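name: query_chain
kind: protein
chains: 1
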Amino acid sequence: NGDFKAVALTMVNRDEQPELAKKLTNGETVIPQIIVYTPEQNGWKRRKLLGFQSSQPVRSLIRLALGKLGN
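structure:
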């Protein structure tokens, strides 16, 4: 429905890119993880969901991030 046009998505395979995965997850080993970064005055705000999630928590997390961007 176009709610998430401003969202960029990427997937990191922790087996193929272990160093990047470790850096992005802060060493957290639970998978899957959904991590959302939003720009803040002093850097980036990091929010995450761990483990399997239904669609509603994912939508809420993304909408929260988009709201912070003024979208």
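note: The chain has a mean pLDDT of 87.
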